Amino acid sequence: METNKHNILIRNARILRNQMTKEEKHLWYDFLKTLPVSVYRQKNIGSYIVDFYIASLKIVIELDGSQHYEEANREKDIERDAFMNSQGIKVLRYSNFDINNHFDRVCADIYNELKGYIE
Prior knowledge:
The protein has helices at about 5-20, 20-30, 70-85, 95-100, 105-119; strands at about 40-45, 50-55, 60-65, 90-95.
């Protein structure tokens, strides 16, 4: 990747870390931050910035707002997930609706994905 594009990604990731959505803050402060593994926020992977990344387990956690359900964005998410999978990275996706209305279920699902590795 070109150095300029890489620097832009790094800058954008830093901005996103400082401007997390309400749902990202909720998941981060009320669950992910308490896990016994390192979880990175707004991490650069390839030419993408993912919401959360557990490098030791190669798991990405993405929170999807309403814009992700528009056709063009769905296609971008499919491409993004395919890239992550090609790197051996599993992608877990949750809607903002689920974070706001079924938080315990989201946490249980994430924990179930990790439990073989963190117990």
